[in-house]
C-alpha cells in the first residue's frame, strides 16, 4: 500500500469532525464574516439619508456594497487560484476590518463619499465570502454538495441576527456620532471571523486535475444547465436586491415605521434567506435542483403580489420573508447545479464568471433601486422585478429538455 492509499484509508476512517473540518470551520467563520452585508443593508440607506447630498443618492452606499462584490469576484478567484483559498479568505477579512473603521470615521466627518468607499470595500470582502460555498463543495463527495452548501448557508441565520443586533445596540454608543458604533462593531465581527479562519485547512488541486485539458469559457457557458444554474442565482439576487435595498428607506423614511420595525423586517428577511437551508439542500437531493428552482420562482412571485396589495407592516414582513425563502431555493439550487457543469481544473474561472454575472447584475438592480424608489415609487420597484422572473422560464424549459434527452 503506497502513501496515497494509506492517506485515503486514514481519511476514510477519520471521525466526522476531521472529515468535515472545512464545513465546520467555514460555517462558523461565515456566521461572523457575513454580518457586514446585513449591517449595511439596515443602515446604509438610513445613514445615506442623513449625509447624502441628494435624496436619490440615499441608497447608493448599499448599491456600492454590491458593486464592490461584483467588481471583486474575478480578483478574488485569481488571488485564491494563485495563493490558495485560506490566504484569500484571511486577506479579505483583514481589509474588511479596516472598512468598518473607515465607515465610522466617515459618519463622524459627515463625508458621504468616504462612507460609500467604505461600503464598497465591505462589499468587496463579500466576494471572498461567496467563495466559502465552493470551498465546501470541493471538500465533500458530489452527492453531498447540496446538503453541505445548505448547512454552510445556515450561518446566514446567525449573521442575520448578529449583524443587525450589533448595529442596533451600538448605534448610539460610538465615539464618532450616531451609527459610528455600529460600524466599529462590524470591524469586531470581521476580526472574529479571521480568528476562526486560522483553523481552516485549505485545499489544493491535484496535479492531474491541474494538467487535465480545459474547455473554453464560451463552451462551458453555452450549456443549458449552466445557463439555468447561473440564471437562477442571478434572478434571485437581482430581484432580492431591487426589493430589499428599497425596503428600509420605504419603511423608515417614506412610511415612517420605527427603526425597530424596520430592523425586524430586515432580520426576518435575512433569516428567511438562510433558515430554509435546514432542508433545502436535502430537498434538492430528493427532488432535484430544477424543481426547487421552480418553487423558488413561485415564492418570489408571491412576494411581489403581497407587497403590491398594501404597505402595512405585515405586508412588508410577509413579502420580505417570501423573498428570502425564494432566494434560498434559487441560490442553493443554482449553486448545486453549477458544480455539475465544470471539471475540477476549470473551477476558478467558472466560479469567477458565475459570481461576476450574479453580482454584476445585482449591482445594476441595487444602483437602480434608490433612483426608482425616489422618482417612481414602491410599486415600480415591484413591477420592474417581474420581468426577471419571466425571463428564467424559457431557460428552465431548455435545461429540463436537455436533462430528459437520452445521452
Characterization of this structure:
- The chain has 407 residues and is an all-alpha fold.
- The chain is 80% helix and 0% strand.
- It has 21 helices and no strands.
- It has helices spanning 3-13, 16-19, 21-33, 36-51, 60-83, 85-108, 112-130, 132-137, 145-153, 155-170, 180-197, 207-211, 217-221, 224-254, 259-274, 280-287, 289-309, 313-338, 347-375, 378-383, 386-404.
- Helix 5 (60-83) runs antiparallel to helix 19 and helix 9 packs antiparallel against helix 16 (280-287).
- The longest helix has 31 residues, at 224-254.
- It is globular, with a radius of gyration of 21 Å.
- The model is unreliable at 1-15 (pLDDT under 50).
Structural features:
80% helix; single chain; globular; 407 residues; mainly alpha; disordered N terminus; 21 helices
Residues in helices, as a percent range: over 70%
Tell me the β content. under 5%
From the alpha-carbon coordinates, what is the Rg to the nearest angstrom? 21 Å
What count of helical segments does DSSP give? 21
Amino acid at each position: 500500500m503506497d502513501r496515497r492509499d494509506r492517506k485515503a484509508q486514514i481519511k476514510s476512517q477519520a471521525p466526522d469532525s476531521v472529515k468535515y473540518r472545512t464545513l465546520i470551520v467555514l460555517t462558523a467563520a461565515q456566521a461572523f464574516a457575513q454580518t457586514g452585508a446585513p449591517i449595511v443593508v439596515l443602515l446604509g440607506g438610513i445613514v445615506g439619508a442623513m449625509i447624502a447630498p441628494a435624496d436619490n443618492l440615499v441608497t447608493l452606499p448599499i448599491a456600492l456594497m454590491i458593486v464592490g462584490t461584483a467588481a471583486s469576484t474575478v480578483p478574488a478567484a485569481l488571488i485564491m487560484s494563485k495563493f490558495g483559498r485560506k490566504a484569500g479568505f484571511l486577506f479579505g477579512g483583514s481589509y474588511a476590518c479596516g472598512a468598518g473603521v473607515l465607515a465610522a470615521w466617515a459618519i463622524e466627518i459627515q463625508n458621504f463619499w468616504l462612507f460609500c468607499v467604505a461600503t464598497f470595500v465591505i462589499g468587496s470582502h463579500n466576494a471572498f465570502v461567496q467563495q466559502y460555498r465552493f470551498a465546501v463543495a470541493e471538500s465533500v463527495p458530489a452527492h453531498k454538495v447540496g446538503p453541505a452548501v445548505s448547512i454552510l448557508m445556515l450561518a446566514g441565520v446567525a449573521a442575520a441576527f448578529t449583524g443587525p443586533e450589533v448595529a442596533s445596540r451600538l448605534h448610539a454608543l460610538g465615539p464618532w456620532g450616531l451609527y459610528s458604533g455600529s460600524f466599529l462593531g462590524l470591524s469586531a465581527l470581521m476580526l472574529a471571523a479571521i480568528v476562526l479562519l486560522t483553523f481552516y485547512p485549505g485545499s489544493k488541486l491535484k496535479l492531474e486535475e491541474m494538467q487535465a485539458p480545459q474547455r473554453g469559457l464560451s463552451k462551458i457557458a453555452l450549456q443549458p444547465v449552466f445557463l439555468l444554474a447561473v440564471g437562477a442565482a442571478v434572478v434571485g439576487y437581482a430581484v432580492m436586491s431591487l426589493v430589499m435595498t428599497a425596503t428600509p428607506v420605504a419603511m423608515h423614511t417614506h412610511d415612517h415605521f420605527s427603526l425597530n420595525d424596520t430592523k425586524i423586517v430586515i432580520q426576518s428577511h435575512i433569516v428567511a434567506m438562510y433558515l430554509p437551508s435546514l432542508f433545502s439542500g436535502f430537498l434538492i437531493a430528493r427532488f432535484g435542483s430544477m424543481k426547487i428552482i421552480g418553487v423558488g420562482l413561485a415564492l418570489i412571485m408571491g412576494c411581489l403580489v403581497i407587497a403590491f396589495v398594501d404597505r402595512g407592516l405585515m405586508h412588508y414582513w410577509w413579502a420580505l420573508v417570501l423573498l428570502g425563502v425564494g432566494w434560498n431555493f434559487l441560490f442553493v439550487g443554482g449553486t448545486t447545479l453549477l458544480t455539475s457543469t465544470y471539471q475540477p481544473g476549470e473551477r476558478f474561472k467558472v466560479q469567477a464568471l458565475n459570481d461576476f454575472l450574479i453580482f454584476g447584475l445585482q449591482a445594476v438592480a441595487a444602483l437602480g433601486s434608490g433612483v426608482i424608489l425616489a422618482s417612481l415609487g414602491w410599486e415600480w420597484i415591484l413591477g420592474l422585478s417581474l420581468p426577471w422572473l419571466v425571463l428564467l422560464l424559457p431557460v428552465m424549459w431548455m435545461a429540463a429538455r436537455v436533462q430528459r434527452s437520452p445521452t
